[in-house]
Design a protein that fits this description.
389 residues, alpha+beta, 5-stranded mixed sheet, two-stranded antiparallel ribbon, 10 helices, 59% helix
């Protein structure tokens, strides 16, 4: 099949004519195989020189179209030539057989080929002309009705057309599946682009708002349903995060964020101290590199269930699950000390952190606002420290 379905450089898989190119090769392979086999059957089994000649002509025309197409890659010419050849020979066969022996059944192949190769407009016209000829042949039979005799030719026609239809529909199903698969992958790419910060590769603010709102909504429901925080037997509602990939470091396994009722949630807002000086003294490109490297360092210190987001500018936000306030303070203090020891783009940087623990009155906006106020407090205390709302 790889030999017949030649891959043209000018028609890559994402080209609009890619599948039309494949169908031309696929159809010509079927027609040449059919005409060769039918010529032998008509010559050796039915001893019919008329149909043997017709099949031989079809074989030669198919080969000429195939050879020209492989040399030139001209899709439009090959599409029209293939459609006209198939529909003309089918009609010639049906007319010569006077519509008998189920010869009209071959006309069902014309729409399958013409619509895909030459489009809806011309495909409709070719199909209508073909079916008009079939209707006329049936009309002639009604004017001079004769007893219907099912011959061996009818059996062969039914079998051959059914096989051809299965092959063509199988090809169309392959194109449909490939199209849906590409569309699904493209939608995932678009979704990832919409919720990912382009510079750092972390989730962005929109994704944070969505996930945090879901987390707090679930927690509020759990508080109403299960006021006793000691129970772990019941399952918590799931979180719709969309497109989680464990292989991507910036996408933690958020489906496991709520492992039990009443789990404490902490939000930490992080800001790079004196980041404006970096942009002013070294330029914005260096500033971007600092943001990327710091994002990587912060991500490397996150637990599997932690969520790290770029909030905007030089600010980041962490969402910590199953983490008490004391544990959050200890964790953020270790993180602050870790960053201070690193050499980022040849500079020693420090960060300030604001911590807010969820309470039953919190919404997504309010807990972020409290974390932001705690961050402002840390900066007012001299920076390079952790403050709690």
């Amino acid at each position: 099949m790889k030999f017949w379905l030649k891959q043209f450089a000018q028609y890559p898989p994402d080209h609009p004519d890619y599948w039309r190119v494949q169908l031309i090769g696929y159809t010509l392979l079927i027609t040449m195989s059919y005409f060769f086999i039918l010529a032998l059957i008509n010559l050796l089994y039915f001893n019919s020189l008329e149909y043997t000649l017709l099949d031989s002509v079809g074989l030669c025309i198919s080969f000429v179209i195939f050879y020209h197409f492989r040399k030139t890659g001209r899709v439009k010419i090959a599409s029209w030539a293939t459609t006209i050849m198939v529909s003309s020979l089918i009609m010639l066969f049906a007319i010569s057989a006077k519509g008998q022996s189920y010869s009209l059944f071959w006309s069902t192949l014309v729409p399958l080929i013409s619509f895909f190769l030459i489009g809806r407009k011309w495909g409709t016209l070719i199909s209508c002309l073909t079916f008009a000829v079939c209707a006329f042949l049936v009309y002639q039979q009604t004017q001079d009705p004769e007893p219907v005799t099912i011959r061996t030719q009818a059996l062969f026609n039914i079998i051959e057309v059914c096989i051809a239809q299965v092959l063509l529909i199988r090809f169309y199903e392959k194109t449909r599946f490939s199209g849906y698969q590409k569309l699904a992958l493209r939608n995932l790419e678009i979704q990832k682009m919409a919720e990912t910060d382009k510079l750092t590769g972390l989730y962005n603010r929109d994704k944070l708002d969505k996930v945090l709102e879901q987390l707090l909504t679930i927690k509020a429901v759990n508080n109403d349903v299960m006021p006793d925080s000691g129970s772990r037997d019941n399952k918590s509602p799931s979180i719709d995060i969309g497109g989680v990939d464990d292989k991507t470091p910036t996408e933690p396994r958020l489906l496991k964020l709520i492992s039990r009722f009443q789990s404490p949630i902490s939000v930490v807002m992080i800001d790079i101290d004196h980041f404006k000086r970096i942009n002013d003294n070294h330029g914005h490109l260096v500033g971007d590199k600092v943001l990327c490297e710091l994002a990587h360092l912060l991500q490397s210190q996150m637990r599997n269930d932690d969520l790290l987001v770029r909030w905007g500018g030089e600010e980041f936000v962490m969402v910590l699950l199953n983490t008490t306030l004391n544990d959050t303070i200890e964790l953020t203090e270790r993180l602050r000390q870790y960053v201070a020891k690193q050499n980022i783009q040849g500079m020693a940087l420090t960060i300030s952190l604001g911590v807010a623990q969820y309470n039953s009155q919190d919404s997504a906006d309010s807990i972020l606002e409290r974390a932001d106020k705690a961050l402002y407090k840390a900066k007012s205390q001299g920076r390079n420290c952790v403050a709690v709302a």
